[in-house]
Amino acid sequence: MTNLDENNTFPLDQIYFYLTEGCNLACRHCWLAPKFDADGTHYPTLPVELFETAIREARPLGLTGVKLTGGEPLLHPEFLTLLEIIRQEGLELTIETNGVLCSPEIASEIAKHPDCFVSVSIDGTDAETHDRIRGVSGAFNRAQQAVRNLVAVDTHPQIIMSVLRSSARQVDDMVRMAEQLGASSVKFNVIQPVARGRKLQETAATLTIEELIELGRHVEMALAPTTNLRLVFDYPPAFRPLSCIASSNGCDTCGILGILGVIAGGQYALCGIGKHVSQLVFGEVGKDRLETVWQENQILKAIREGLPDHLGGICARCLMKHQCKGACIAQNYYCTGSLWSPFWFCEVAEKEGLFPETRLVEVAA
Amino acid sequence: MTDHNMPIANPLVVLREEFDDWAILFNPETADAMGINPVGVAVWKQMDGRHSLEEIVDDLGERFSEVPDTAGKDVAAFVNQLVELGFVGYELKDSGR
Q1: Facing B37 at nearest CB: one of A221, A243, A356
Q2: Does residue B76 belong to the interface with chain A, where contact is any CB pair within 8 Å?
Q3: CATH no. for residue B66?
Q4: Which residues of A touch B39 (CB under 8 A)?
Q5: Residue B47 lies in a domain
Q6: Which of A10, A191, A270, B2 is 20 to 30 Å apart from A301, CA to CA?
């Protein structure tokens, strides 16, 4: 299974732009761990000319869409200019925001885009829970209002809830809240052991693998039938019921082979992980030709040649490896320094006897 | 293939049933795998070389409610897919020579 196009090359389908080094929230679980920046004036943001350069050089490589994320993308001082560039280029648009700055005016500008997908992060169903996780008072009300502002212009966002031990019991209520706000879907994220997420895991503020599997099963089998919203529980596909995989339109297929990151400092990277891991930074926007980076970088070439067959550990034995592709190569590298390490979630599950044997190439005697 | 053909499951292929009544068919020789729904599981269990496709479809009518009129074609397509994967073969009936 490959992503090769008719020219026998890998198209660069998506660029993920990590627009700001700072963020106006201080989330306890953030894997990027940006510096706190209430108004977006204290830390670097991606210059517009580099944004344009990356898009211009990516078009001939197959670019069809961009994701704007952060830090916090709406904190970028020229966010509306970036939106206009994306519209003019006719690119699909994805925005991941905490919603704090998503005013009615900004929502209207986003809604002008004919093909956009917006997610707003809300980590609890009350201000006390959300604001404690997000580190800033008032964030909950602003995030809820952001959803309302987007819905008012007929852009129904996804709500993303990162599940901590302190908020896990609010999962059902989150779906009810999303229905009332007019969201299109709810995604439940597992806290990843990167940066602040690692510290949370070390202090047992996250759920155990057993609890996560149980919660995922609850969301997919019990909660999903009670709502018209699409629900996504973001654990590896090996743990997902087959019935849910069959009805999820390929969402379990990782797009890593067609994605490149651009971080706020103006570098090409595997993704935002480049902020933490210099080995996964591939070049400078505007100095290095993107075509050269995309086609000749040794790590990108190794990933294309090695996924999924070079994956080790439990991933090597998993029937889902062609869809999952190791779940998150960046995460795996961050944890071990190897691209081919198994995904931490699956590795722990195997050690604890929780990995579903039906999904293994060989079943233990 | 003739009307007298009866599908028979490759004995090497393992049916791995999961908690929600779906299952994975897995061929340990090739590592090929395929997810199947509860109807597929019922069809698979009838492919013992002693049941025709018509009999298998009739059996579905007894096990499941609201079996569609297209069940015969659907089951035939499913079995053909399994044949192509090498998960199923046919055992020809004695022609009466």
Answers
A1: A243
A2: no
A3: 3.90.930.60
A4: none
A5: yes
A6: A191
Q: For residue B31, which residues of chain A lie inside 8 Å, CB to CB?
A: 319, 361
Count: domains in chain A: 1
Beta strand A230-233 pairing with A259-263: unpaired
Q: What is the mean pLDDT of each run of 10 residues along chain A (365 residues)?
A: 61 97 93 86 93 98 96 96 97 98 98 95 98 97 98 98 97 98 98 91 94 98 97 96 82 82 97 92 98 96 95 96 92 93 97 96 65
| Residue A137, pLDDT score | 96
Whether A140 is in a domain gets the answer yes
The domain tally of chain B equals 1
Residue B97 lies in a domain: no
Q: A246 vs B18: CB contact, 8 Å cut-off?
A: no
| Model pLDDT, residue A300 | 96
How many CB contacts within 8 angstroms connect chain A with chain B?
37
Residue B43 lies in a domain: yes
Name the maximum alpha-carbon separation found in chain B: 47
Does some domain include residue A67? yes
In this structure, what CATH number is given to the domain that contains residue A89?
Answer: 3.20.20.70
A148's CB contacts (< 8 A; 6+ apart) are: A181, A182
Q: How many CA within 13 A on the CB side of residue A343?
A: 24
Distance from CA of A235 to the nearest CA of B (A): 18
Assigned domain for A359 exists:
no
Which domain covers residue B67, as residue numbers? 6-85
Low-confidence ranges of chain B (pLDDT < 70): 1-4, 91-97
ipTM here: 0.83
B16 touches chain A (CB under 8 A): yes
Residue A314 lies in a domain: no
At residue A338, the pLDDT reads 95
Residue B11 in any domain: the answer is yes
Q: Tell me the residue range of the domain where A107 lies.
A: 14-256
Amino acid at A284: E
Write out A21-46 in H/E/C secondary structure. CEECCCCCCCCCCCEECCCCCCCCEC
